[in-house]
What does this fold into?
Amino acid sequence: MTVTVLFVPGLRDHVADHWQTHAANALPGSITVEPIQQDRLSLAARVNALDAALHAISGEVVLAAHSAGCLMVAAWAAHPTRPIRGALLATPADVESPLPEGYPTLDELSANGWCPIARKLLPFPSIVAASHNDPLASFERVSGLAIDWGGELFDAGNVGHLNPPSGFGKWREALPLINRLAAR
It folds into this structure.
């Protein structure tokens, strides 16, 4: 049986030179959750889009999420509708703390269901990648999420938010981590 990798972008959806885009291009048959057109800041709408993408896939699935996409996975996993083989959760954003300028405010995030962050034990194996210099979440907060989610903490080093502004297009650890989850 084949394993399909489903990429779950954050709030900025598809970014051309993002690690998820590069990894998706390297994994034939992988799928990316489609951007939603309405209620773009709604966690519930994002979780519904994730659920729809999951139900369009037959066979086993490994999730590869980034930033707020990790929070979407955690919210979906509180009431899962199908089994998941594993999830790579890379640099989850700490939406319970003020984010840098250009990101939604705490009030906007709270009004759209993002707070509090879902902290229930995930019903599937996960690897949570944390950065020591992420402007969207401290290493300590992400370490705490890994514990709450029952995930393995992966120390990604000083990779910022693991996105193009942090100097990342390709992330060399992504494919080995995804493959490790797929092999479980």
Summary: The mean pLDDT is 94. The longest helix spans residues 43-55.
